[in-house]
Write the structure tokens for this entry.
Amino acid sequence: MKGLLQRVSHARVVVGAETLGSIGTGLLVLVGIEPHDTHASADKLLHKLLNYRVFSDAEGKMNLSLIDVAGGLLLVSQFTLAADTQSGLRPSFSKAAPPALGAQLFEYLVQKAKNSHEKVGVGQFGADMQVHLINDGPVTFLLET
């Protein structure tokens, strides 16, 4: 499972004219799911997302986690993170999880996040979404489990 996390001062995800999820300071995470991923992969990714130290402390060093700053977590499914881009000029999505597995694991991740963290927003699996964000830093990391 892959999580492309971006430290944001604000982010929201919109489908049509409806805002599905919105956060202030926190992490926007684009989630890519592959066929070999499991509940254990999702658990490990969530642990990293909640505890990864990407927020600045009083000295300006990245020493604080999402939990430490009581920030928001916005999860957005992103099957293109599983793309194979090694050859040619068109990505292959053969390494992405089938939609049924992807939806099941993404929903599992969302429910675990909501049970573990107070401020969780979410996009809609498989939808054409518009993601708006202000990347703070910019700070972006690719986490893989």
